[in-house]
Design brief:
- It is a single chain.
- The chain is mostly helical and 94 residues long.
- It has one domain: Ribosomal protein S18 (30s Ribosomal Protein S18), CATH 4.10.640.10.
- Helices cover 34% and strands 0% of the residues.
- The chain contains 5 helices and no strands.
- It starts with 5 loop residues before the first helix and ends in a 9-residue tail after the last helix.
Length: 94
């Protein structure tokens, strides 16, 4: 039985420069809008501000998309849920 050398099997492939695709574009670092404005709470009655954090279907956007920190994301989520129960925001989009 002939066995290949280990170095042949695990050789690094020739790394060439890749063409830049749409994923390699520059993006701006997201920041928490509540920390920037030094706001502690999100009011459930302020539907204009809360609509920025939900999709057209009515789903709550995650903090990796909105840029909110974890503590403010929890505050926004609770405010959206309160506004839904008060019928200020829809549960399901149109």
């Amino acid at each position: 039985m002939i066995r290949k050398e280990r170095s042949d099997r695990f050789k690094k492939k020739d790394l060439k420069k890749k063409k830049r695709g749409p994923k390699d574009k520059f993006f701006r670092k997201k920041f928490c809008k509540f920390c920037a404005d030094k706001v502690d709470t999100a009011d459930y009655k302020d539907t204009a501000k809360l609509r920025k954090f939900i999709t057209e279907q009515g789903k709550i956007l995650p903090n990796r998309i909105t840029g909110n920190c974890a503590s403010h994301q929890r505050v926004v989520t609770a405010a959206i849920k309160r506004a839904r129960h008060m019928a200020l925001l829809p549960f399901v989009g149109e």
